[in-house]
Automatic annotation (TrEMBL):
Pfam families: Glyco_transf_21. Pathway: Sphingolipid metabolism; Lipid metabolism; sphingolipid metabolism. The lineage of its organism: Bacteria, Pseudomonadati, Myxococcota, Myxococcia, Myxococcales. The keyword Transmembrane helix applies. This is Glycosyltransferase. Its main location: membrane. The chain crosses the membrane at residues 6-29, 277-299, 305-326. One of its GO terms (molecular function) is glycosyltransferase activity. Keywords: Glycosyltransferase, Membrane, Transferase, Transmembrane, Transmembrane helix. It is an enzyme of class 2 (transferase). It comes from Pendulispora rubella. Its EC number is 2.4.-.-.
């Protein structure tokens, strides 16, 4: 066995071990959650924040699921940045269909913060009446017991935030199938594993619950308005207050029905870039989470019987893991979805490689550059900063003279 093969096998062993650990922790976390389930002892009033921007897949049906919530006291606040937004008539029609539901549409100021979603949260925070805030994205669909399961976790001693596991559903296009497969085969298991193995679970903005008093202590939602990964920073701020973050294992549905492959690539590339600026070390190690990807590289670098056998073995391992994860989260899953697992791995690798060479993203039509912790830097701000830096340093001749002077 040559040095190249030894390195390849070592990388494969590390990757397969990490993948198996993630899947095992995911299943154990789900089993523990079922065993420890009990109804909450109280029912504080809840304000559900729904930031809307455009008409996401199945928006009407997603909103309808919130009209069926089985919880004694809650209000539903639907935010739009403009009455010209396509989501506005959908939201108004929902309100008219449900006169018995405590729901209203709030037109927000899109310029309140750099992050347009947080700008909506800032406006909703001012008009909310609940002692608990629940943030739920527009492409999320929930069960009638959704609020009850969140409050069950939130009322624990010293708990400051509860985030929900989520699973992609509804695929009718290749792009949507890849999106939902990525969520179910990797994202959801890794989030569940983090709740069991990491100091605190990942906080995901798809669905989060928190006490109003704790948000006020950290300066309100405006304090997280200058970053793109507002959910990550919110989790950090909660942890800095000495509060616990919990994960609700009752998964909500993230509806992805008809998006294109291009949109899926753009979305996951953007998320990869955010992970890069938030946790560079974790980002660098991400390819190890896919044994099939490592085995494919092994074949490319050292083709032969050993690497081909490793490729087949890792393919079987990931097909098994994907099947178990999706069946645990969704029940029966068509084989045509499972068969996309190799393609999903290579698409994910492409997004990761693209994120390695660029921090520029497009967010709702606005090009921005990501700074540390996903700070939003507009292109104008970046040009201004570069111009100031060049002015401070002076021309090349001056910088060279300074350099030689320092050496001397």
């Amino acid at each position: 066995m040559g040095p190249g093969q030894a390195v390849g096998l070592s990388a494969l062993a590390a990757s397969s071990g990490a993948y198996s650990l993630m899947m095992g922790a995911f299943l154990l976390a789900r089993a523990r959650a079922r065993a420890q389930r009990q109804p909450p002892s109280r029912a504080p009033r809840v304000s559900v924040f729904k930031p809307l921007a455009g008409v996401d897949d199945d928006l009407e049906s997603n909103l309808e699921s919130f009209a069926k919530l089985d919880y004694p006291s809650f209000e539903l606040l639907l935010a739009v940045a403009s009455t010209a937004d396509a989501a506005y008539p959908v939201a108004k029609a929902f309100v008219e269909r449900h006169p018995k539901v405590d729901v209203r549409v709030v037109v927000t100021d899109p310029h309140a913060t750099k992050n347009p979603k947080v700008a909506q949260l800032v406006a909703l925070e001012r008009v909310a009446t609940g002692s608990v805030f629940v943030i739920s994205d527009s492409n999320v669909r929930v069960s009638p017991k959704y609020l009850e399961t969140l409050i069950e976790q939130l009322e624990g001693e010293n708990v400051g935030l509860v985030t929900s596991l989520f699973v992609g559903t509804g695929e009718k296009s290749l792009g949507a199938a890849l999106e939902n497969l990525q969520i179910g085969a990797y994202v959801a298991p890794s989030i569940a594993a983090s709740a069991l193995l990491a100091p605190r679970p990942f906080t995901v903005g798809k669905s989060m619950a928190m006490w109003r008093r704790d948000i006020a202590k950290m300066g309100g939602f405006r304090s997280i308005g200058d970053v793109l990964a507002e959910d990550h920073l919110l989790g950090r701020k909660v942890a800095e207050q000495g509060l616990e973050i919990r994960l609700s294992l009752d998964a909500v549905e993230n509806r992805n029905v008809s998006c294109s492959v291009r949109r899926t690539l753009e979305r996951h590339t953007r998320w990869a870039k955010m992970r890069r600026v938030i946790s560079p070390t974790g980002f660098a190690l991400e390819p190890l989470g896919s044994p099939l990807t490592i085995a494919t590289a092994f074949v490319g670098l050292s083709p032969g019987g050993l690497s081909y056998a490793a490729l087949v073995s890792t393919w079987l391992l990931q097909m098994l893991g994907t099947s178990v994860a999706l069946r645990t989260l969704r029940g029966r899953v068509p084989w045509r979805i499972l068969a996309l697992e190799p393609l999903r791995c290579y698409v994910t690798l492409w997004c990761w490689m693209h994120a390695c060479v660029s921090k520029r993203v497009s967010w709702r039509g606005h090009p921005i550059v990501l700074g540390k912790d996903s700070r939003i830097v507009t292109l104008a701000e970046r040009r201004e900063a570069r111009a100031k830096d060049a002015k401070d340093r002076g021309p090349w001749s001056t910088r060279l003279r300074r350099a030689f002077a320092n050496v001397a």
